[in-house]
Amino acid sequence: MISTPPPSGNLVITVCSTKGGVGKTTLAANLGGLLADLGQQVLLIDADIQPTLSSFYGLSDHAPAGYRRCFRTGTSKTASVAPTSAAI
Q1: φ, ψ for residue 20, nearest 5 deg
Q2: Residue 25 in contact with residue 48, Cβ under 8 Å?
Q3: Is 6 exposed, middle or buried (0-12, 13-18, 19+ CB in 10 A)?
Q4: Do residues 59 and 82 make contact, with C-beta atoms less than 8 angstroms apart?
Q5: Which long-range contacts (CB under 8 A, 24 or more apart) does 36-43 make?
Q6: Taking the model in full, what pTM does it have?
Q7: Which residues form the CobQ/CobB/MinD/ParA nucleotide binding domain (predicted)?
Q8: Which of 53, 26, 37, 44 is nearest to 81 (CA)?
Q9: N or C: where does the chain have the smaller number of CB atoms within 10 Å of the terminal CB?
Q10: Which 8-state DSSP code applies to residue 65?
């Protein structure tokens, strides 16, 4: 699903399916990499119980809090983001 960009110019693309093994993570990783190569700032969020998105891009550091903790407890959003060694 691709949303209409809000006035801020940000675009949210959601890749989802209830079926496993259909390539959601691979699609998200490749799309994020392509957009980063085109000069866009990209934030990829893997909400899967078994997150594997980080295997596509080497994490240079691990975030002290995951996205679940961020939304449940109000933890700082920056505590839930880990930079990668890639330009993404």
Answers
A1: -85, 160
A2: yes
A3: exposed
A4: yes
A5: 36/86, 36/87, 36/88, 37/87, 42/88, 43/81
A6: 0.67
A7: 13-60
A8: 44
A9: N
A10: S
